[in-house]
Amino acid sequence: MVKMDQVRMNSLEQEKNALQKENQLLKSIIDHMHESVFCINEASEIILYNCETEKIEGMKREDVLGKKEDAVYPDYSWSRDVTKKILSTGRPLIEQPYRYKLPNGRTADIIFSTFPFYDQGQLAAIYTIARNLNQINDFITITMEMQKKLLREENNHQDRARYLLEDIIGDSESIQRTVFLARKVAGHDSPVLIVGETGTGKELFAHGIHNASCFSKGPFVPVNCAAIPDTLLESVLFGTVKGAFTGASDIPGLFEQAEGGTIFLDEINSMPLLLQAKLLRVLQDKVIRRIGSKGEIPVNCRIISATNMDPLDAVREPAIRWDLFYRLATVTMRIPPLRERKEDMKILTWHFIKKFNTKFGLFINIISEDLIYLFERYDWPGNIRELENIVESAMNVVEPDEKTLRLHHLPEYFQGRLLKSPSNFPSLAGKGTLRAMLMEFEKKLIEDTLQKNKGNITKTAEELGMLRQNLHYRMKRFGIQLKKIS
């Protein structure tokens, strides 16, 4: 019996030691947080006061622990504005700005969240987590410096293709057919010419083809032929030797840097015709000659090129030499513009919403029907790049508590463009102001949705993302009568 009692006592001692160790660990973690943590028990006595709170308020924890909250903060403002609200409502206060005076004459500016803690159904404590407003700018500066550092590191690894063919979004037949073709041609080393309007994702396909090919372990070197001055493009592509011209040194060109990998010549139609002749020789003989050099250097890399012009128009102008065209276009892939794949509109919009939800800390999880209706009927001359830009712009003005992306979030100039688009809503032509067009559109959308739901108010309100009473109000405002809805 004595032995069993001793075992039980040893077990209890071990549990006590483990709890003490865990308690010390939690206290250490709380003390090393950048946020202020402050807690009172059910008797309004201060039981937790971490290091960051000491820094903000200029008081020592040994001077406040165990004391009543009202004794430490004699002006009673915190007790009145925060503690009593928690006691009366039982609900937390989240992300609230607050300024309060301290006994030492200091003023503290914070953003706080305060929570009630219940034990067996009874309020046992109230704790606050706060950030010092004066330190937030410092945190922003540090964060931006870290982002710059990561960006520099990323730029140092830009010879790697970032995207896969699996990253290409869309369920439409046209985009799926294009992805299927890209997978097939990736397995060979034939040159590929990608044709597509600006913003359709030509470079994304080039990345994907490279990563699906036998050249994937080598570098991926993108070159925008339109962005490099004609006088520099030759030296950038083929390299230079020391003494070729004033200030020249031994520098390998991009073809050499792409050895064993892929070089992507974007906007090939912007390359000077004289330089195209030299590029033709690279394709034929697989050798390059640096500017100022007498020797030839063999190269082994795949060439993928892209143009935003119809290739036959480019040859007729001529923006591309006909003999180079036939070398580059062994395989030609056309990327469909967004207006030809409207069935992908919703999935693409959702992709960008999720991207900017993460980036901006938002929680949009619904797209209003009228917005998708307009998106699907707009021609999108800037294609996917334009769609991404518009979604990002809209997400910048969304409020933190909003869940639905709506037409009014879009830039005003773009709202007008959507509503004036002939393919969108022909009857709006000549309606005048943007406000008048929006009202006309809203009336038409409600009538069409009521018609679709055979006058069912509940279904119509649900589909339009509004309350029944709001729908009734709008119907009355626009003079919409159910008896006229068949």
UniProtKB/TrEMBL annotation:
Keywords: ATP-binding, Coiled coil, DNA-binding, Nucleotide-binding, Transcription, Transcription regulation. It holds the Pfam family AAA_lid_14. Residues 22-75 form the PAS domain. Residues 168-396 form the Sigma-54 factor interaction domain. Residues 2-29 form a coiled coil. GO terms for biological process: regulation of DNA-templated transcription. This is Sigma-54-dependent Fis family transcriptional regulator.
